[in-house]
Design a protein that fits this description.
Helix content: 10-25%
Order of helices and strands: EHEEEHEHHEEEEH
Number of helices: 5
Number of strands: 9
Structural class: alpha+beta
Shape: globular
């Protein structure tokens, strides 16, 4: 499942680069209704613009304030959105410190699993939007930093159903420990996913249910 080269075919997609990641991918994550699955090598604290009105304060359209994206994820978790973060490296200290400020996420609202072989960068929102590209889950990668400071990143966004099914199946196989038994890097692993309490045994790939088209 993880070693393949599929025949070429045409798909509809949007190219995103630089700030486009912030405007297209992060916006989709913040607006998620059902699920957000993220795969990344590196995880760092990520600050995003926050135009929401605060109690006792008038909303400003001129100057945006900034909050951690974890605040938005906490709101998604409160609404029952499934949040998965599959990563390779230990998240940065600022990320871990901010995460500790959100008990709902720590208690499982944001499920984190670590596999040192993960190097793919993918974001899947509601089973309907797929991002594949070079950007890690960091401010510099996803265009949250200012011009001249963010990374040079490129990727694409698509709602292509067969590609969504394929990538979700690959993601789920890693997430559930389906590759752990044959892994040759067990000595470098922080804890095989197949040994996590509550992880269901690997199952044959099947279509993952997606929302209806809108």
């Amino acid at each position: 499942m993880l070693d393949l080269a599929l025949p070429a075919r045409s798909i509809a997609m949007e190219l995103v680069a630089g700030r486009g990641h912030y405007e297209r991918v992060l916006a989709a994550v913040i607006g998620a209704k059902v699920s957000v699955w993220i795969a990344t090598a590196n995880v760092k604290e990520l600050m995003v613009e926050d135009h929401r009105a605060r109690p006792g304060r008038r909303r400003s359209l001129r100057k945006a304030s900034y909050v951690s994206v974890l605040s938005h994820l906490d709101e998604l978790a409160a609404r029952g959105v499934e949040l998965r973060l599959l990563h390779a490296e230990l998240p940065s200290r600022p990320f871990r410190e901010e995460l500790a400020q959100h008990p709902r996420l720590v208690a499982g609202g944001l499920a984190l699993r670590r596999c040192p072989r993960v190097h793919m960068k993918a974001v899947i929102v509601d089973g309907e939007l797929l991002y594949l590209g070079s950007a890690n889950w960091t401010g510099a990668g996803l265009g949250a930093k200012g011009s001249g400071r963010r990374n040079f990143e490129v990727g694409f966004v698509t709602d292509d159903a067969p590609l969504l099914d394929q990538v979700q199946s690959m993601y789920d196989r890693i997430w559930t420990g389906g590759e752990c038994a044959a892994c040759k890097l067990r000595d470098d692993c922080p804890g095989p996913l197949s040994e996590l309490a509550g992880v269901r045994p690997p199952r044959p790939p099947k279509k993952i249910k997606r929302l209806g088209r809108v």
